[in-house]
Amino acid sequence: MPPSPRTTGRVTLPIEEGIDDRLRELVAALGADAVRNSDGTWLPEVAAELVEKVYSTYFPARGDQEWALAHPDTLVNQYLMSPRITATGPEPLRIDVMEGYFREQFRPCYERVERFWEVIDRTTGQVVPVQGWSVEEATGILTIARPEPWHVYTVAFLADQVWDTTQMYNYITNGWGVTDPTRVKERPYDIRKNGVWEHVRQALRTWLESHPEVDVVRFTTFFYHFTIAFDAEAREKLVDWFGYSASVSPEAIDAFEAEYGYALRAEDFVDGGYYNSPFRVPTPAFRDWIDFQSRFVAQRAKELVDITHAAGREAMMFLGDNWIGTEPYGEHFASIGLDAVVGSAGSAATTRLIADIPGVRYTEVRFLPYFFPDVFNHDGGDPVGEANESWLTSRRAIVRRPLDRMGYGGYVSLALEFPEFIERITEICQEFRDIHDRSGGELPANAPFAVGVLNSWGSLRTWQTHMVAHAKWYKAAYSYGGVVEALAGLPFEVRFLSFDEVLAHGVPEEVGVLINAGAAGTAFSGGPAWADERLTGLIRSWVAAGHGFIGVGEPTAVDHGGAFLQLSDVLGVERERQLTLSTDRYPVLVEDHPVTADVEGVFDDGEGAGGDVYATAAGTQVLSYVEGSVRVAVNEFGAGRAVYFSGLPYSPVNSRTLQRALYWAAGREDLLEEWFSSDPATEVAWYPGQRRFLVTNNSSRAVRTSVRGMGRTWEVEIEPMGLVWTDVTDVEC
Amino acid sequence: MPPSPRTTGRVTLPIEEGIDDRLRELVAALGADAVRNSDGTWLPEVAAELVEKVYSTYFPARGDQEWALAHPDTLVNQYLMSPRITATGPEPLRIDVMEGYFREQFRPCYERVERFWEVIDRTTGQVVPVQGWSVEEATGILTIARPEPWHVYTVAFLADQVWDTTQMYNYITNGWGVTDPTRVKERPYDIRKNGVWEHVRQALRTWLESHPEVDVVRFTTFFYHFTIAFDAEAREKLVDWFGYSASVSPEAIDAFEAEYGYALRAEDFVDGGYYNSPFRVPTPAFRDWIDFQSRFVAQRAKELVDITHAAGREAMMFLGDNWIGTEPYGEHFASIGLDAVVGSAGSAATTRLIADIPGVRYTEVRFLPYFFPDVFNHDGGDPVGEANESWLTSRRAIVRRPLDRMGYGGYVSLALEFPEFIERITEICQEFRDIHDRSGGELPANAPFAVGVLNSWGSLRTWQTHMVAHAKWYKAAYSYGGVVEALAGLPFEVRFLSFDEVLAHGVPEEVGVLINAGAAGTAFSGGPAWADERLTGLIRSWVAAGHGFIGVGEPTAVDHGGAFLQLSDVLGVERERQLTLSTDRYPVLVEDHPVTADVEGVFDDGEGAGGDVYATAAGTQVLSYVEGSVRVAVNEFGAGRAVYFSGLPYSPVNSRTLQRALYWAAGREDLLEEWFSSDPATEVAWYPGQRRFLVTNNSSRAVRTSVRGMGRTWEVEIEPMGLVWTDVTDVEC
């Protein structure tokens, strides 16, 4: 076990029963000041004496299975859509609505099927009248009496969740069916349903009374799970971390209609099979639903938090699982009154997502790896490597905005089998505390202008663009996700702005550069928003007045008025869709430019823009041109500037290139001499109040870099993955 | 000079003055039976004694420059669109309509500007009323009095062509301005204009009388050039081999209105800057214009052909240059009464394009290289290599459908400097004649079902899909162009079918497999045509009845009803647009399948489908899967079958794979044993009437291949680029 650390605190350790002595040593080594249990572990009695604070998980929506089984009419619902079925003739068309779904997870809910189910002829877009179909409850077979031959039909239907999503996931993933077959398959209950809310409140009160050792109630989470559906072979079929499909119920939909004055249709939820993915341009109805459920969840969650506080405990929310309705950048979140949020660090962006959450007293990040046998084994597992990767990835974000606390999760007994892992996380815990201590609580200086990320979602999805399943890598998305991943560790204040907000209030005064990044037709690019002359006019005049605009991939894209990229005049580029192949291209290639000064070889645009991009404006300077397609270009528009990237997957060089592009677009190339390092593997944070700067080495090799600032140059050597603090004592500020 | 050939004829040789003796030897060596002049060469007096037929070029629309200069009001017009100009404020917006155009090629035509010019606010799509703008004729500056700030404007305007397109191209490309500055810059005249038609007819009569040595008048071509515009730096700015923008005039547009009962707008021609590229889904107005001008051109061309015939000469048309209005698969073409068409072979598809032209007595192909100094030089030029490539490329098509004649063009004196080139084309001429002689005039057997290529254009653009500038390679198009390039040399009857034709008459009885290949939103994929339930229903029922459907790239693509590939149920695949990333994919990968049996390693899909493709149907078999995206898949639909390719650039293996896919989709895998060779570099043609088969080696290496047919197997060895004829004499048919 490593020796005692230089400082202590800010660290939460997962613990378990039966290894008290080792826990004592480990708490000391890490300087941990809090402990927690995990799903499947129990707190030992020694917990309270080890540390200042004891956390315990708490599951409001599935914690009491005895009660759940006694109240089968309280299951949480989920909207599902049947497969697309093609009618092969005029005879009645039978559709097994559950085809392809996992029958242990769902069963059809037959409550008022005429109201909540919807059969659509997808070929014409017409709803099949209720009189035109019937459903057999015994089999779940829906029959369309007289289909149009060769038309495609779908059935949207309300299902009961007969197995709680997260528990099902853990159960199946960990093979509990084999290893622990007596374990119950937990059922979720919906607080909108008969008696549930009264029970949930009382159960929490009871639990608090019977768990005086718990200081912090770690809600995991509240009431509605993000969308997961498994398939007929018990595999994941659909996963959407932002999905609201499992936040529905007849009660909620009725309440919505009563309040909003219009009725939501099944189609508003299943959305043609797209299920309102965050990549879809959100419909007004879906936005209303988000607001409706978020308000409801916040009100109810606040009551649980109030109960927790009344019992003298803290209330912490785990950001994940049943988090629907608690989007932390939504307008209702702060009203919940939580003390803290804890979340998993899958990337710099998700770390910033947690770090920047407003309306809570403190935030905590759970680093990877989770202490599970998939990594903690002697058969190829690399816990040290994963710890390093997690730390390096998140550290960029933590430097910009230190989270208050860190921790790990899982089975600590597993981790203890790997002394070199314990040693490494001991160092990480110290480095984490050092960032707080050496910065003196001061945030490092940012550029004198803010960066606005412009999309359909705006602030609601702060740091959450291009995500599907949390921070999981997606081939289609990583070339865009790199933008916020880079920003999460760069010296800029970042504002996430929606088209609506900008239309209503203009671009905020402090924003110097706007970024629009995404594939055509997605919420992140904006789709039809760009056919709105108010938006294009507003952005054009704003750029021309001396601001910057950065487009990535297919920015401002919609087929309108003879253009596809609507701001092709600003960006100086256009996306080829095989409709202008007749036009010759004579791009002006520029070798040396401040934006691409750190790019060696070919600029890496990941998956690119999905097709060729060409220069349109006479003044467009093409900085990277590969196989007849623009990868990087710059253009001037009035007194403003624009930069185009065909893709921007995260890498140290691309992050640095984005930083350069932001300075250049804002007309502030002078900042390239101000707290800027020569090696792209490194980043500099400057603390003016401390007269101190931090250089981090994001690579696993030793680096030697120059650092420029205040007209001076420092040569700094940094060990692999290391960081160096330097005091600036001999220079006048 | 090589010895005299085994047979003679079918060959046209370009000749020139001053080398009579060498011409005599060359005519003998090649077995040439016709000679021609070229642009810039004159026929020597010996011509008529050398060969049976003497061709002479003839330019009906620019041949008499003295007359052109005397009649300056007869210039051909062209529709152009100004650059897109963004208004930066409410003050009057001045647009130099000619900005970016070549002022030696065009000048604005101010005839009735209020009728023929059109100013459009592209941001709103609204036409700016004529009262809202004015144009200064001295400068070509159009001023919009009160623009909307930050809106984008364009001006569509009629221009005079003050320099004939082809002559300008040759003049600039060959640097005649330096080498021959006295050469006149020729002006084109429009037969719709004052007195032109009378002059053109009379000029032809006069010319025929004064050129009794000419047997064949090679019209180059008739009246309207395909679209070419040069830019301000005298470079090609826009080229569209199918463009009708240069077929316009006030006279024609007025006549159209009188006949069709509606007025065409400038926008109908400039098409938002897309200029009705063949990749655009054609508008009804544009289709009407094609028909209107084609009918007019055919009527007038017929008169010239009649004059030619009356003088006892043949009339041949060069397919190119001023060919607008004479599309050879259009319904008016045959009425012209031409004896022959000659065209350039840039690919197998363009060779078939010429070979299959209906309504003429014979066709002729001009092989590459053209005898120009760009290839015929001793400084890296490779005339033999180019001749081989041209021959190998076209031979595939010629075997399937022999053209009647072949030839070359350019300056023969240049070619004579390269004896090894003369030797090689001597062999090629003999091989060309042998294909006619050994096949006995019989076409090789095709598969017992026809292949339909389904797109917006149908038969009008037979063999002309995905072309921009003739057979020029385009990065965006080659992955689709490979489909017809492959078909041009494969043993299938090919029908080019339009959506309209199929909707009106169904799929023709003889068609066994339909192909829809193209990028979303293009005329070749079909765009909005696929939102028409009649079309999808018709194709679904047709496939389900036992036919085949092959989709390439983004077939049947339009955003409609929760799907993008509308026949995703038939194809079993769907194109990811970042809207269904939440859905997990479990493709069924199949290692061995008849369709991909010749693919070694990774299937080459060229540029691919522009994004990821995933399997949708449970039965979809994925035959090639790269980085999470389907490249080849097969699916069954009712009694029919479908094959999907994400791209199909031409290569011997891909051509073979398409052949396999066609057999498989038609349910005729048995054909893989019938006149099929084991080596994909080879192709087999079977002549049942001759009881003889031909195996061609399309590669530059010697091959040994098995040939299967009639239950027998032959082992055939073929030299590089060679071919082998084999008689089947010992087997009963």
From TrEMBL, chains A, B:
Domain Lacto-N-biose phosphorylase central: 451-670
Enzyme class: transferase
Example of a GO MF term: 1,3-beta-galactosyl-N-acetylhexosamine phosphorylase activity
Organism domain of life: Bacteria
GO BP field: carbohydrate metabolic process
Residue runs in coiled coils: none
A Pfam short name: LBP_C
Domain Lacto-N-biose phosphorylase C-terminal: from-to ranges: 675-725
Keywords, alphabetical: Glycosyltransferase, Transferase
Residue ranges of domain Lacto-N-biose phosphorylase-like N-terminal TIM barrel in the record: 9-445
EC number: 2.4.1.211
Keyword Ligase included in the entry's annotation: no
Cited NCBIfam families: 1,3-beta-galactosyl-N-acetylhexosamine phosphorylase
Protein's name according to its UniProt entry: D-galactosyl-beta-1->3-N-acetyl-D-hexosamine phosphorylase Cphy3030
